Amino acid sequence: MLRLEDEALLTGKGRYVADRRPDGMLTMALLRSPLAHGTIRLLDVDAARTMPGVRLVLTAEDMKAAGIGPLKVAGEVPNRDGSPMVVRHRPVLAEGAVRYAGEPVAAVIAETEDQALDALEAIVLDLDELPVIVDLEQAAESGAPKVWPELPDNRSLDWEIGNRAETERLFAEAAHVVELTVRHPRIVIAPVETRGALGEYDPASGRYTLTTPSQGVVAIRASMADCLGVGTDKVRVVTEDVGGSFAVKIWPYPEQVLALVAAKATGRPVQWISSRTEGMVSDAMGRGRVDRAALALDKDYKFLAFRIDALGDMGAYINHVAATIVTKGAVRVFGHCYKIPGLYYRVQGLFTNTVPTDAYRGASKPETVSTTERLIDYAADSLGIDRIELRRRNLVTPADLPYKTAMGETYDGGDFPAVLDRILKAADVEGFPARRADSEARGLRRGLGLTLHLHATGGSVAERSEVIAQPDGTVIVRSGTQDSGQGHRTALAMVAAETLEIQVERIRVEQGDSDFLAKGGGTGGSNLMPIAANTVHRTAEQLIRQARAVAGQMLEAAVQDIEYGLGEFRIAGTDRKLSLGEVAAGWEALPEGARDTEMGTGCAVQLDFEGLHTTFPNGAYAVEVEIDPDTGKVDVRRWTGIDDLGRVINEATAQGQLHGGIGQSVGEALLEAAHYDPATGQLLSGSFMDYTVPRADDVPALDLGWAPTASPNSLIGAKGVGEVSSIGGPGPVMNAVMDALKPYGIKHIDIPMTAGKVWQSINKR
Length: 765
Hints:
This protein is an alpha+beta fold. Helices cover 29% and strands 24% of the residues. The chain has 21 helices and 28 strands.
C-alpha cells in the first residue's frame, strides 16, 4: 500500500471546492484596486447593481451596516522595549484608502461569472494616488513614503531574542568576524489549486456554512464567526480535497467572509474561485526578509557568536500570524546544528504597499538556515579554511545532547557528525574534482554545495483526535489537522491500525468538517506526526482501555483478566473472545445503568494533545550545479540527501514531501521572486509568463537516504517531514552556485540566482 488517497485522486474522483455547484448557486467577482496606494474619493456602484444578472453588490459601507468586522491578527509580539507592536487589521473591503494593488474594494454577486465581471466594469472608482513604497530596505529609510501616515517609520514591530550582551562580548573578543547581507525575496506560493470559497446560509437555523480549501477548519471557523459577529456554533467550515497549500490557505481571507455575507443577503449559495493572476495579487506571499548577518570565530575557527539584524516585509496589513513567523518562527533553528554560545536576533517588521506576507513552507526557518549556511561558506572562503572542516569542528555531537541553545530550544536527539559522514560518502565528495574537470572540459563551471539543516516542528498544540469503533468492525479516526496533498489519511490510518492491531483498510479517516471536532489546531509546522499522529495513537490506546472494560462486562469477567491483541478482546487463558466490532455493538446496546466509570465514553474516545510537541528532524544535502558562463544558466546536476526523520511511517509519503520541498527550494534559490514596480507598486510578476516556478526538468534525479535517531518527544518515534527539505534545500544550491563562480572572484549573489543575474556577475569582473 502506498497511499489511501491515490485511487480517488488518480481517477478524478477528488472533490475540490470548484466541484461544488449547489442548485441556485451565484458567482462572486471582486473589484480590486488598480493602484498600490490611494485615497478613495468616489466609489459608485449604482450602475453595477442594475446590470443583467446582478443580485448584490457589496462595499465597505455595506460591511459596516451589517456589522462585519475586519480580519484580526491572531499573533502579536511585544517590541524589544516592551511596548506593543503596531497592528493594522485587514478590512474585508477597503475602507477610505487602498494600500496595495489588488486590495478588494467591492464585490459583485451575479447569476454567472460573465455577468459578474461585466458588472465590475460598470463600477466607478476614483482614487487620489499617493506615493508608494515597495522595497523593504527603502521602507526603513528616513523620508520613505508612509503606508500608514500616522506611523513615522513604517515600522510595525522591533523584536529581539538571545543573549545580546554575551553575543556582543564574544564578537569583541573574536579572532575573526565575518559579515554578509543575505536577501530573501518575496515568494508567490502558487499551489496547483487556487483559493476559493462557497458560502451558504440557512435562515431557519441562522447558520452559515463555508466550504473552502484550508489547512484547518476550526481556526477558519473562529475567524469567520468573529468577522460576522456570531458565535462559532453558527458557523460550519468544510474542507474537502485541497490541491496544495504550503500555508497560503491556512489564513482567513476577505473572500470567505464576503461569500458568507452574500449568501445570507441573497438567500442563495455564493461561490468565488480565484484566477491565477487574481491569486498572485491577493494571496498572502512568503518570505521577504533581509538578513544582515555576522559570525564570530576564535583563532581555532570555533564559532563564538552569530547574529542577524533583519528586516521583515509585512505588507500593507498584518496578516493572521505573520508577526510570529518573522520573529518566533525564525529563531527556532537559530544556529541549528552548530554549537554557538552567543546568539542574537533582531528583526524590524515594516509595512510596505504590497499584499501581506505570512508563513510559507518552513515559516521563516528556511531564511535563517540558508543565511547561516551561506555565511559559513563565506567565512570559510574568507579565512582560508575548508568549508567541510569548518562545519565538522563546530557541530553539536551526541555527547552534547540534550543541547540547549541560547534561544531556549533543547535538541532532543540526532547525530549530526554521523549525518555529515554519511552525506560525504553518499555524494561521493571525493570524486567531485573529477566531475568538475569533466564539466570544465565542456566549457562549463561546476560547483558543489554541502550544508546541514535542522527543523523544529510545532504548529498549534490545540489538537484533538477522536477514535470511534464501529459495530461493523471498522474504525473512524477524526483529526483536527487537514490534508492538502501530503497523504494525512494514509499516515493517520497506519498509526491507528498499528495501535489497534487491525488492518489499515478498516480505518476511515475523517477530516475537514468543523462539526466533527470542536477543537483542532490544523496543519502547520510539520505537526502531523509529532502532534496529530501521537494524539491519534494516545486516543486509540484509550479506546482499548475503555473497550476492555466493556468487553469485561460482556464476557462477565474482571477487567484485569481481559487481554487485547489483533483487534480482539480475550479472557486470559481461555478461547472466549470478542472482536472490537462486537464490543462496539455491545456498548451501543448496553443500558446506561450498566456503564461504569472504567468504561468512560466506551468505544468513542476524544483526547486533546498532551506532552512535548517539538522534535528536531535534521539532515544534510549535497548539491552539484553546472553553469554555462556564456548564458549564466544554472543547471542542478546532482542532489544527494541524508535525513533523520526519526521513524518513517510511510516511505512513499515521506519521499514525496522531501521531493516537493526540494523542488520548491530549487525555485526559491534559482528562479522565484515577486517583483513590484518601485514607482507604481504594480506587481510585475503577476502571471506564469512573468513569474518562473520550477519545472520537472529543473530538478535532477534525487538520491535520498535515511539516518534515523530516536526522539524522546515522540510516542510513535516519528519526527515529522513536511518542511524539512524546504528548510534545508535553498542553502546548498546557493553555495553550489557560489562555488562554481569562485574562479571569477564573485563573493556573493542574492537569490534568486537567475541566469541573467549570474551572467551579469560574471561579466562585471
